[in-house]
Amino acid sequence: MRRPSSTIRGLAIAVTLDLLLVGPALAAQSYGGWQDSNWNGIDGYIRQSGTVHLNSGLHLDWITLCQHDSCSQWTQVGTYQGYLTGHSNPDQVHVFYENVNVCGTYSNDDLGPPPTPNYAYYLSYDGNGQTGFYCPTHHTGYIIQYRMGSIGSNPIFNGDLSTSDGLVLAKTEDQGALLGTDYYGCQGVELCSNGSYGLHLYTSSTGIWSGWTGGSVPSNGNPPYLHTFNNYWSFKTCPSLC
User: Fold this and answer.
1) What is the pLDDT of residues 133-171, one digit of tens each?
2) In 10 A of CB 126, how many CB atoms?
3) High-pLDDT (> 70) share of the chain, %
4) Could you tell me which residues are beta bridge partners of residue 62?
């Protein structure tokens, strides 16, 4: 989800493909993963496979919370390798984040390699109600906190959306890149039975993170192919049928 040449070819197109929303397709993208609606956050472990070098293309694994529920605004964190807007990283997997905020402004950053290949990422509404933004006219929105490692860690970034809830998504995104096998909600390679590592969804009214077990919408990009271990909190995506 990069703007303009990659922003819309990220999450906005992911939702376009899955929910038939209208949006510009600026490059060939495909997606493997799951999405659901009406939540205030999402977390879980992500392990992205790396390739030796990407001459072109972009390979990403991310979790996303976007405003209820069109995803013209979004918050996103995860990992990537390749050519992200403003960043060139063809040789190894790095952590990144993105936000298209209540003002329609796109921002992102590259945070370098993850501390370990399999690492936890978090997006959640901070629970503090509406706040005001000026850009240059007045808008109201909600703060979404981005974290890594644990929910108790300091935010790596504070994004904002015009709603405190919306679509949650966890997906591999391929833009003409070489793919390996990527894991979501797993404690290790092909070890995906421990719910503590799984994907969880957040309800701010109760403060509870629940394992992702509700009915959800799949993406199967062929590739990336989707294989679900536990509906819907652990899965992998693959370059061929898996």
Assistant:
1) 989 889 999 999 999 999 999 999 999 999 999 999 999
2) 17
3) 89
4) 78, 171
Cis peptide before 119 (omega within 30 of 0): no
CB-based contact 212:228 (threshold 8 Å): no
Domain parsing of the chain, residue ranges: 29-238
The tens digit of pLDDT for each residue in 76-106 reads 999 999 999 999 999 999 999 999 999 999 9
Give me the CATH code for the 29-238 domain, please: 2.60.120
- What are the structure tokens assigned to 110, written together? 């590259």
Query: Which residues have C-beta within 8 Å of that of residue 206, sequence separation ≥ 6?
Result: none
| Number of Cβ within a 10 Å radius of residue 212 | 27
Query: C-alpha angle 181/187/189, rounded to 5°?
Result: 30
